[in-house]
Amino acid sequence: MPGHVIVTDQEATRVITLRRPEKKNAITQAMYRDMSEAIDTAQGNPAIRCIVMSGGPGVFTAGNDLEDFLKDGTSNTDAPRASNAVKFLYSLAHNAKPIVAAVDGIAIGIGTTLLFHCDHVVASTMATFSTPFIHLGLVPEGASSLLAPRTMGHQRAFAMLVMGRTLSAEDARLAGFVNTVVAPGHTETEARKVARDICALPAEAVAISRKLVRPLPEDLTRRIDQESHLFGERMRSAEAIAAFKAFFSRKKG
Predict the structure, then answer these.
(1) Axis crossing angle, helix 238-252 with helix 217-235, rounded to the nearest 10
(2) Contact indicator for 128, 79 with CB cutoff of 8 Å
(3) pLDDT digit string (tens) for 18-50?
(4) How does pLDDT run across 140-170, given as a tens digit for each residue?
(5) Distance between CA atoms of residues 29 and 32, nearest Å
(6) H-run or E-run covering 67
(7) In the chain, what are the domains?
């Protein structure tokens, strides 16, 4: 929706802010498209040295807008996840600019899995991280089945991705995918400071070093495709259909 993703360039940093507070920044297909465009257009712009992703104060994102997501996911049974969400994940996989995330509040589903594509994560003490795919009869996405074990180790990744356990900000810091924990309301300020520090470093050396420490983009997109195929199959499974019906029943109740 217009106005739900705010993109601003400040000095050498592009700031992408989710702005849908009435829905806890739940992400629609239009929002995925806008975020993807903001990342893609930064790639060929040498003036943009770093990207900050933020949900604003008090929330990062509640994940997919489920009604919008289901409408898109069932529109084509042959390619249930050939969507703007997958294009956004491809943008993250191919992105060559350092990304700093500012997480102040809930990060659910893709709100957590996208963080594994980021290079530095600042969280507030109020932040929580969860990937409740299993409770909806679904499987991990966003190459998280590759990146989470690489970052956290198998056991922690299993607890989050397979058991659906929620992590606090301190849990996430100890697990290795949050760098810094700050007071509520201070995540974006700290993230912009980190971005300025990155921008002050030699640009070519940063780009080469980042490329060396990250998985190859083709490895990420291969896993994204594999997960998307399985995710699509699961969307049509009896388990997932029953879980979604139960979820919407509870929501109406």
Answers:
(1) 80
(2) no
(3) 999 999 999 999 999 999 999 999 999 999 999
(4) 999 999 999 999 999 999 999 999 999 999 9
(5) 5
(6) helix 66-73
(7) 5-204 (3.90.226.10)
